[in-house]
Amino acid sequence: MDSNCVFLLSIWWGGVHQILLMLASHWIACLWLLTVELEPASASTWLDAFAKKIYDLDSSKELHHLVKYTAALYWACVTITSIGYGDIVPTNKQEMQVVVVATLVGSCLWAYFIGSVCSILSTLDIDKIEHQQRMDQLNEFMRKHDVSANPSNRRHLAQF
Fold it and tell me: Could you tell me where the DSSP H helices lie in the chain?
């Protein structure tokens, strides 16, 4: 496989990971908003605290849906990436349970994403990888045939 093909494949695979990360952020944000909807009207929620802190409103009912989703998506992104600013926090038991699940899922997803990016970056230099593979094969050959007894032979083979 030539280096251009590997490069394009790496870009495509990186794009797949970014889409996966965006979808996970969306679903976690929706789950975070669902906790508000499932609470009784009299219960205090993270969204009420957010509305009071940012907009100086007594209830989150007055917030536009886009503002609610944006706050939830923001929270999901900082939770997944483990930044966790702490400005949007759970205020009851059910929200704490959702935070635990979101943190566990998000941290695993983030670790997978970082690992994939590192893997993609490490495979971009085809010539270097081929050279390393040839050297590994040469070292295995020299070990198998006990070439290490004569250092001059070892240096001579390594030049190729």
Answer: 3-38, 46-55, 65-80, 93-122, 126-144, 151-158
Read off the pLDDT of residues 5-25 as tens digits, 9 standing for 90 and up: 666 666 777 788 889 999 999
Strands (E), 19-122: none
46 and 89 Cβ atoms separated by less than 8 Å:
yes
Please tell me the distance from the alpha carbon of residue 116 to that of residue 21, in angstroms, as a whole number: 12
Query: Are residues 115 and 14 in contact, defined by beta-carbon separation less than 8 angstroms?
Result: no
> Of the ranges 56-65, 90-99, 131-140, which is most confident?
90-99
Tell me if 50 sits within 8 A of 40, measured CB to CB.
Answer: no
Q: What is the largest CA-CA distance in the chain?
A: 84
CA separation, residue 20 to residues 9, 47, 109 (Å): 17, 26, 9
Please measure the distance between the N-terminal and C-terminal CA atoms of the chain and give it in whole angstroms: 23
For the residues 69-90, what does the mean pLDDT come to? 95
Cβ burial of 69 (10 Å; 0-12, 13-18, 19+) is: middle
